[in-house]
Every structure is written in structure tokens, then in C-alpha cells.
């Protein structure tokens, strides 16, 4: 056995590879620092899964890649101070799920927020009202092309009672309320 715990001196190895075959613990209040080079963590890796301290991965200019099945616990900030692009998932990766047990938001301080699906998609709520609100207006349209698809506004089917109503209206106004126009530009007919 080799025990240097009673000493405050330092211990330094050469430039060759160092192998730690047993469990390795860094004492509380001490740091494990990799100044350069690549750090590889393979197998099941737990980072601050039970502690309350802040965990930071990367910096404002770093490129960080986290692959495989990844679980992040606690309050989590991803690229909150950096200017680089943040990517979750890839073109060849599996499904990406973001789940919360509280009210959540996707927000951009500048620029557009685009959500794109490669197949049919549903945007809904399990309870309560779904509101689409645009500060510059709201457009619901199908993709333009050689031909275009239908746009349907409909209530859900009622299996044991009356179905809901469809209301198209303008907001209140202090001068003149806006008009409701249906099929006034390009439609060949309104039925």
C-alpha cells in the first residue's frame, strides 16, 4: 500500500500513460483539472446526479458534444452565455424528447423560432386552451407548390354530446372594428 495522506507535498508522474485500475475519489473541496487534450468518459457516466452544486460543461467558445442516452437532472442551463450554435440531436440520431413537470417555454430574444417536422405532426394540449398569437399577425397556411394541400379548421368529434362551435371574429376596437373576409382574394367559391 502507498499512503501519502499525512503529507501536504505534491506527487507528479512522468509523461507516459497512467492507469488507475481501482475506484478513484477526489476529496471534497479539491479539483480534477484537464488543461488540454481530450477527455473520454465511456460507459455509464454520472455527473453531479445527487449533489446540489452547479455543473458547467463547456464555455462561451467551446464546441461540446454529448452523445448516447443522456439524463440531465436539476436546474439545467445549456449555452446560456456562449454565442455558438446549440444542437440537440442530429440527422442520424433517434428521437429527442423534452419533458417537464411544470409550465415551460421556448423563447428567442432575437431572431425567429422555427419548428419543422419531416412528417405529419400534432401540436396540442392535454388540457386547457391552445393559443396561437403573433405580434405581427398570425398566418395558417399550407406549403406552396405545383399544387397545395387543404387547410382545415374543425372541432373534434363529440362521442357523447354536442360538438364545439367555431368562432371567427375580430377583437374589440376603440374606433372601427376590423372586418371578417372569407374568399375575397383568390377563392373560386365559398360554400
What do these coordinates show?
The chain has 191 residues and is low in regular secondary structure.
Record keyword descriptors for this entry:
single chain; 191 residues; little secondary structure; 0% helix
What is this entry, summarized?
This protein has 191 residues and is mostly loops. The protein has no helices and no strands.
Write the layout of secondary structure elements.
Elements: no helix or strand
Q: Supply Rg.
A: 28 Å
The end-to-end distance, rounded to whole angstroms, is: 90 Å
Average pLDDT works out at 85
Task: Give a quick account of the main beta sheet: strands, pairing sense, barrel closure.
Answer: none
**Unreliable stretches:** none
Total beta strand runs: 0
β-strand percent reads: under 5%
Helix content: under 10%
Number of helices: 0
Structural class estimated from helices and strands: little secondary structure
Could you say which overall geometry the principal axes of the C-alpha atoms support?
elongated
Amino acid at each position: 500500500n502507498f499512503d501519502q495522506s499525512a503529507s501536504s507535498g505534491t506527487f507528479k508522474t512522468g509523461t507516459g500513460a497512467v492507469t488507475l485500475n481501482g475506484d478513484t475519489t477526489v476529496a471534497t473541496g479539491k479539483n480534477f483539472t484537464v488543461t488540454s487534450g481530450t477527455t473520454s468518459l465511456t460507459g455509464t457516466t454520472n455527473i453531479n446526479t445527487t449533489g446540489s452544486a452547479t455543473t458547467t460543461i463547456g464555455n462561451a467558445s467551446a464546441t461540446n458534444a454529448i452523445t448516447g442516452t443522456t439524463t440531465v437532472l436539476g436546474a439545467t442551463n445549456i449555452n446560456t452565455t456562449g454565442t455558438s450554435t446549440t444542437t440537440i440531436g442530429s440527422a442520424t440520431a433517434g428521437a429527442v424528447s423534452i419533458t417537464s413537470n411544470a409550465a415551460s417555454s421556448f423563447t428567442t430574444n432575437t431572431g425567429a423560432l422555427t419548428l419543422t417536422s419531416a412528417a405529419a405532426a400534432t401540436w396540442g394540449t392535454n388540457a386547457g386552451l391552445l393559443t396561437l398569437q403573433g405580434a405581427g399577425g398570425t398566418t395558417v397556411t399550407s406549403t406552396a407548390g405545383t399544387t397545395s394541400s387543404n387547410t382545415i379548421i374543425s372541432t373534434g368529434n363529440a362521442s357523447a354530446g354536442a360538438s364545439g362551435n367555431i368562432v371567427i371574429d375580430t377583437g374589440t376596437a376603440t374606433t372601427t372594428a376590423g372586418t371578417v373576409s372569407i374568399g375575397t382574394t383568390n377563392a373560386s367559391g365559398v360554400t
